[in-house]
Recover the amino acids of this structure.
RNA sequence: GCCCGGGUGGCGGAAUUGGUAGACGCGCCAGAUUUAGGAUCUGGUAUCCGUGAGGAUGUGGGGGUUCGAUUCCCCCCCCGGGCACCA
């Protein structure tokens, strides 16, 4: 036997077929096709300097298997790849070395592309996108302009992390335990001017849209919790001294009679007028102290509740009682109205506070269990109302709506809905991000812009977006889409400006412009002012967009990546719609997936898109841990480099093993020995397919082989559909083990095995397919169909149980009747030994499976 | 604290409209082949008792439903994830 033929030379094979696919454009997705479409999408990577991590391919392989399988099933498949390439690391590297982030990014992208290509994915590389490409981010900016036009973007002072030592704004993830990640310096909260997107306007739609999505339940639940819808009422309490209204939000209007004090947040606008002069010093000290507290301190539940009485009272609208008003930092200014009515008997937090300060605790909901009534406060469950005037005796839950109606009738409140969701801080004080296409002008010029006919006029939102700078109110004007992309200027220094502004603020020739109120054209003020009265002075917005921006809509750009006229052409969008499958890490359960839904829904509402939801079916692959069971990390030294794995075992082995590790969604450790196992399997396939002396022409004749083969077709097909790739692989192993044992088998059998294997180990499958005399590419062959009728054996095994325990078994023809089987079971010598001296009380027969004799005595 | 997900051999994991627990792979043991190693092949491998045939136990722990439970119900323990004063 020619030993050489059996060698599995994966390096040569993989190179050969990767070149073939590229040359033949095997995986080009057709925009005009009569075939049904299938769009498999991976969360695109941030191309880091560290290169591809072993965790990246896990999801990519999964989507690739689906893509190749669907292609075999006759679909026109789109499986694209691109780069989420704006972001901090490239900028930090630039600060350190002076290398322009675009240079770093390009090098990283090249490396990522090389690595991803080496794994042999069925990717249409003609559709590659890059969020830092002006041809791409021009559309990111275009979407922003739409949001701005519709009043969904505004500017506000918002607290951010500020590091005085670094003189820089830090992102949440750059702050570890109240210190800067770089240099370990103390950080503080500081208010900075931010561009904010009004995602809260979409809270209801984002919540309702979840119902129709085929997403992991846990992810839907997380989004639901994040949006945090609650129903209740706003109630107005009249302030005794001034007659003004203090409005609170409550989900428990049924406990209004149990209110014994009120609390306003330290930042509440009415606080200063509530404080009586004797209390002023104490309250001022308290407000100052809580302002200094970090978020962490303020949300520490273990902390004792603190607060100060303001000296003022208000009137409970349901019973006219005088209620003291306190200030306490356990009430948040950012939720509801920033003020609460406190019901210590039925709210844990209020109860704790009331006990601290000796405030009355008045029960108004009876505990349903009479005996437990004492000592079980606070009680927040359902019950009958007590101490509540005319509502006494009513079921509290049912009474809520009645009370709300009464409040409304009396003009002292109304039903209200609240969300935990906050507006989205959309600006970063950074260089390496999409410039925000706005300029700032004076009030006078703004008024002019609103009346001048031109491309600008219609893009201006109904309500002006303003900011205060050096005591002057400035107005935001959009840079119209005709002037996009607004490119990042070159900068000499990537250091933050030191004032908390972006490095862009330091480039005055970019910052200060002549701006044409008619056309939206801008020209640096280093140039002479153009003629025409519509040219005014303006300064550019210096903030850039967050990394989320580019990833909010990239799934659309793959459909039409080179379109310079539109974000995506209507006909292409109509054909491709959106991804049929989207895979990525669960860490994006909320932010990316919520932001992307927001933008997509907005574009749908604007008539740009035909569908409201971007990702119909979503899946999260699980984490791959190091061999030691810990998270892979450089410092632990347990990182597996995919390049080295491919060198040693080949891309096919890597692909196969990532899928064989365990369930796709599970967290599972890597294993060097394990990859040897699947590599061995591929070698077996290679060897069997090259043993021509075992191959027979014509159809498979061995019944046993035929049965295993069709069982394998069935199981592999079902397993792929269910994303249970580990099961599919083990079934193929069963088949090859069988083929190895039989003397000979039909060459067709080998070919079918290769077709089943092709989505998992495409290079080897192509090579062997060709060596068996077929024409490439195997990906264009129709998927094999299982013949179910072959799976039913003529003889079936039926097991005998006594009291549910296995005691024997027998072979029967498949059309056997119950009585025959039961008598056979009773006649079995082993079964008999367990029946001896006992009485059979029940005989159970599960057709074709088992007999169970229940005995007594 | 609250809300999820999970706990099956030495290891990764199969098996659920309730019906032979441990497929497949790894590791390990024995054997074949080989000058040797590697590679490959064959057989074995949950635990305990037993020379053996065989028996008992066994899917985190306890209880329940059932002829029969990894699967359904109740309580508890452990691990992982998310949220965290949201009124």
């Amino acid at each position: 036997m020619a030993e050489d033929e059996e060698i599995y030379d994966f390096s040569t094979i993989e190179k050969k077929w990767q070149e073939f696919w590229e040359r033949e454009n095997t995986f080009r997705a057709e925009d005009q096709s009569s075939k049904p479409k299938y769009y498999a999408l991976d969360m695109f990577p941030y191309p880091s300097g560290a290169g591809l991590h072993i965790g990246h391919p896990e999801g990519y392989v999964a989507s690739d298997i689906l893509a190749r399988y669907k292609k075999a099933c006759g679909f026109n498949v789109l499986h694209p790849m691109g780069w989420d390439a704006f972001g901090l690391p490239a900028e930090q590297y630039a600060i350190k070395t002076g290398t322009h982030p675009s240079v770093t990014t390009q090098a990283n992208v090249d490396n990522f592309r090389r690595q991803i290509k080496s794994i042999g994915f069925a990717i249409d590389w003609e559709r590659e996108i890059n969020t830092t490409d002006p041809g791409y981010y021009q559309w990111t900016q275009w979407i922003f302009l739409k949001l701005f036009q519709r009043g969904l973007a505004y500017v506000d002072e918002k607290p951010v992390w500020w590091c005085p030592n670094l003189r820089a704004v830090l992102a949440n993830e750059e702050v570890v335990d109240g210190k800067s990640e770089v240099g370990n310096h103390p950080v503080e909260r500081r208010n900075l001017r931010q561009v904010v997107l009004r995602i809260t306007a979409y809270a209801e739609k984002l919540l309702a849209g979840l119902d129709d999505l085929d997403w992991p339940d846990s992810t839907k639940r997380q989004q639901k919790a994040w949006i945090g819808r609650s129903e209740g009422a706003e109630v107005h309490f009249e302030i005794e001294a001034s007659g003004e209204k203090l409005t609170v939000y409550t989900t428990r209007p049924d406990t209004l009679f149990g209110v014994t004090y009120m609390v306003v947040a330290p930042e509440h606008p009415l606080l200063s007028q509530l404080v009586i002069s004797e209390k002023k010093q104490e309250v001022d000290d308290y407000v100052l102290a809580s302002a200094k507290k970090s978020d962490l301190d303020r949300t520490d539940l273990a902390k004792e509740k603190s607060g100060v009485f303001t000296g003022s009272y208000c009137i409970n609208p349901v019973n006219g009682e005088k209620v003291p008003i306190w200030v306490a930092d356990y009430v948040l200014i950012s939720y509801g109205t920033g003020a609460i009515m406190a019901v210590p008997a039925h709210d844990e937090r209020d109860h704790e506070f009331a006990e601290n300060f000796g405030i009355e605790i008045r029960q108004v909901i009876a505990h349903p269990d009479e005996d437990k009534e004492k000592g079980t406060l606070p009680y927040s469950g359902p019950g009958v109302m007590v101490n509540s005037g005319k509502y006494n005796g009513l079921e509290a839950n049912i009474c809520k709506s009645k009370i709300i109606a009464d409040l409304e009738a009396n003009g002292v409140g109304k039903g209200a809905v609240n969300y935990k969701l906050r507006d989205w801080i959309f600006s970063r004080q950074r260089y390496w991000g999409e410039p925000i296409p706005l300029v700032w002008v004076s009030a006078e010029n703004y008024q002019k812009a609103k009346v001048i006919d031109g491309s600008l006029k219609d893009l201006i939102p109904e309500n002006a977006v303003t900011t205060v700078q050096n005591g002057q109110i400035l107005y935001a004007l959009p840079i119209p889409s005709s002037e996009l992309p607004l490119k990042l200027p070159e900068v000499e220094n990537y250091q933050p400006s030191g004032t908390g502004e972006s490095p862009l603020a330091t480039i005055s020739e970019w910052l200060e412009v002549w701006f044409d109120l008619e056309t939206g054209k801008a020209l640096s003020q280093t140039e002479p002012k153009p003629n025409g009265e519509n040219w005014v002075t303006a300064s550019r917005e210096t903030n850039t967009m967050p990394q989320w921006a580019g990833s909010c809509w990239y799934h659309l750009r793959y459909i039409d990546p080179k379109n310079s006229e539109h974000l995506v052409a209507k006909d292409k969008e109509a054909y491709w719609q959106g991804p049929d499958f989207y895979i990525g890490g669960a860490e994006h359960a909320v932010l990316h997936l919520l932001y992307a839904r927001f933008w997509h829904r907005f574009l749908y509402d604007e008539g740009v898109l035909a569908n409201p939801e971007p990702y119909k079916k979503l899946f999260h692959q699980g984490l791959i841990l190091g061999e030691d069971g810990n998270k892979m990390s450089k410092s632990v030294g347990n990182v597996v480099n995919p390049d080295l794995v491919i060198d040693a075992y080949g891309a096919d082995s890597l692909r196969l093993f990532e899928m064989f590790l365990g369930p796709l969604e599970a967290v599972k450790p890597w294993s060097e020995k394990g990859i040897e196992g699947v590599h061995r399997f591929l070698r077996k396939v290679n060897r069997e397919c090259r043993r021509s002396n075992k191959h027979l022409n014509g159809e498979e004749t061995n019944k046993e082989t035929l049965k295993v083969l069709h069982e394998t077709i069935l199981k592999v097909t079902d397993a792929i559909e269910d994303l249970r790739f580990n099961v599919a692989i083990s079934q193929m192993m069963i088949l090859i083990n069988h083929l190895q044992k039989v003397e000979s088998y039909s060459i067709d059998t080998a070919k079918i095995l290769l077709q089943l294997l092709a989505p998992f180990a495409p290079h080897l499958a192509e090579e062997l397919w060709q060596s068996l005399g077929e024409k490439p590419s195997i990906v264009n062959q129709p998927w094999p169909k299982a013949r179910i009728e072959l799976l039913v054996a003529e003889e079936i095994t039926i097991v005998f149980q006594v009291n549910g325990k296995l005691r024997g078994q027998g072979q029967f023809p498949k059309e056997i009747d119950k009585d025959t089987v039961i008598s056979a079971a009773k006649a079995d010598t082993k079964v008999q030994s367990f029946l001896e001296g006992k009485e059979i009380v029940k005989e159970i027969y599960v057709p074709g499976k088992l007999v169970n004799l229940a005995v007594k005595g």
